[in-house]
Predict the 3D structure of the following.
Amino acid sequence: MSPQDTADTQTFVNIVSSPTLPSEAAFGLAWSPMDKLKVLADAQWTEWSTFDKAEFEPKDPDNDDIHTIEFNWKDT
């Protein structure tokens, strides 16, 4: 592959989607029952299911195909 081929590959598509970024919630607790002991706990939730797809279109003006990558992400 020549450097020219690599450059063409890197500029093949435009991103046309406006993804919705996931919501997040996090909290943490710390408790120190004595001088040399500290108990920590935390939890985080991310709504990955809102980030459902990415769409790309070729830069070629004669080609109006839109390529879609579907994500099947679960909230964690």
